[in-house]
Amino acid sequence: MTTVNHAPESKAAGADLSLAFDDLRYTLESYRVSNDERLAQIESRHGVDPLTEEKMARIDSALDEATRRLDRLTLDRSRPALGRDELRDPLVGEHKAAFAAYVRSGEASGLKRLEAKALSAGSGPDGGYLAPSSVEGEILRRLSSASPIRALATVRTISSGTYKKAFSTTGPASGWVGETAARPQTGSPTLAELSFPAMELYAMPAATQTLLDDAIVNIDQWIAEEVESAFAEQEGAAFVSGDGIDKPKGFLAYPMVAETSWSWGSIGVLNTGVAGAFATANPSDILVDLVYALKAGYRQNASFVMNRKTQAQVRKFKDSTGQYLWQPPASIGAPATLMGFPLVEAETMPDMANNAIALAFGDFRRGYLVVDRAGVRILRDPYSAKPYVLFYTTKRVGGGVQDFAAIKGLRFAV
Q1: What CA–CA distance (Å, rounded) separates 175 from 359?
Q2: Which domain holds residue 24?
Q3: What count of other Cβ atoms lies within 10 Å of the Cβ of residue 397?
Q4: Helices 219-241 and 90-105: angle between axes, nearest 10 degrees
Q5: Is 53 inside a domain boundary?
Q6: SS3 at position 158
Q7: In the 8-state DSSP scheme, what is residue 186?
Q8: Which of 247, 236, 219, 226 lies closest to 146, judged by CA?
Q9: Does an H or E element contain 388, and which?
Q10: Cβ neighbours of residue 205 closer than 8 Å, sequence gap 6 or more
Q11: What is the pLDDT of residue 120?
Q12: Number of domains in the chain
C-alpha cells in the first residue's frame, strides 16, 4: 500500500501564513509611523506635506492587500478534504459519480436513476439536478468566509420556502410570590410573527469542453470557486441593504430612528454631529456612545461593521494615552479589532456621506438571520453560448433582522 504524505504541503502553507502575518504587522507599523508624522505636521500648523499624504495612501492600500492575502491563505488552509462522505454512504458516492458524469458530458441517466431511488437526488420543476452534498457544503463554507454578514449572522437551513419565527412583543407577566401565597393568574404574552422567505439566487459559470474533459480537474471545487464570488457579492449587498423584494431584507432597509425614540421593529441610530464625517475634536467619542447604546447582553458578542473607506478613517483614531484604537489581528485567522471589539469589513456598507449610516455595531448572531433552503441545483446548458458550456446554478436564500435590539447604526449627520 502506498501512503501519501501531505506534511510538506502543510508546512509550506503554514510558512506562507506566517510570512503573510509578519507582512501585515510590518505594514501596520509603517502605517503608524507615517500617521504619527502626519499628525505632527498638523500640530506644527504648517500643514500636511503632500508627500506624506501620498505615502499614507500607498501604505493604506498595502495594508488592505496584506489583510486580504492573510484572509485568503487562512481560507485555503481551512479547506476540508472533499470526498469523505462517500466512504460512509455508498449512495453519496453514486450521486457524486453520476453528477460528475452529467457535468462533464451531459450524461444524465445516472442522476435519473437516482431520482427513482431518492427524491433528494432528483430534478426540480425548473430543471437541473441537485448538486452533491460535498459541492453544496463547499459553496456554503466559502460563502461563510467571503460574505461578511453571513459569517456573523445566525444561519438556518430549511426544507420549505419560508421560515417563520414567533416572538413576544410584551413578554408574559411575572413576579415574586410567597411560598404559601395564592398564585395570581399571569397575563398571556402578545405574540407576533417574523417571516423569512427564501429567494432564488443564481450564477452561470462557463467552461470549455477541454476543461471538462480534463480528468485531473476537481469538478466539485471548480463549481464552488466559480459561483463563490457571484453568490457572495449578491448576498453581501442584500444582507446589508436589500429591499426584501425577490431578495433578502438587509438590516439597513428597516426603519432607522434616533436611539432615544427606539422601538421594536426599527434600528436605533446615533448621529456623529457632523454632516458626512466624524467630529473634528475627539472623533472617537461617538464610537464609545455607540458601544454603550447596546445593552450589556449584546455587547459581549458584538462587532463593528463598515467598509474599507470608513475603516481607513478609524485606523487613525487614538485614545487619550496615544494608543491606536484599531488593532491588527492578534493571531492568524483572527479579525482586526476596534476598541477591543472585532471589526468586520463589508464592502457593501455605504461610504461616509451626509445622512449615510456607514457604520454599524451589534451582536449580528442574535440580530440577523440568514435562511438557506437545502440544496444547490445545477442545469447544464451546452447550447446557448457555443463552444462554451454554461452551468445555471441556483440556491435559495433569505434573510432579515430577528432581534431589533441587537444592532445599532451610526449616521454621519448633524
Answers
A1: 39
A2: 12-77
A3: 25
A4: 90
A5: yes
A6: strand
A7: P
A8: 236
A9: strand 388-401
A10: 223, 226, 227, 230, 390, 391, 393
A11: 46
A12: 1
Cα 209 from chain centroid (whole Å): 33
Cα–Cα distance list, 17 to 11, 14, 80, 281 (Å): 10, 5, 17, 39
What is the model's pTM?
A: 0.76
Is residue 44 situated within a structural domain? Answer: yes
Instruction: Find out whether the peptide bond into 387 is cis, omega within 30 degrees of 0.
Output: yes
The closest alpha carbon to 202, from 144, 145, 147, 247, belongs to 247
pLDDT digits (tens, 9 = 90+) for 88-104: 556 677 788 888 888 88
In Å, how far are 70, 75, 348 from 344, measured between CA atoms?
14, 16, 12
Q: Tell whether 143 is covered by a domain.
A: no
Q: How far is CA 78 from the centre of its chain?
A: 17
- From residue 289, give the alpha-carbon distance in Å to each of 142, 271, 286: 35, 10, 5
361-382, pLDDT tens digit by residue?
999 999 999 999 988 999 999 9
* Other CB atoms within 10 Å distance of the CB of residue 85: 16
- CB of 355 within 8 A of CB of 78? no
Cell of 137: 457544503
Domain membership of residue 63 (yes or no) is: yes
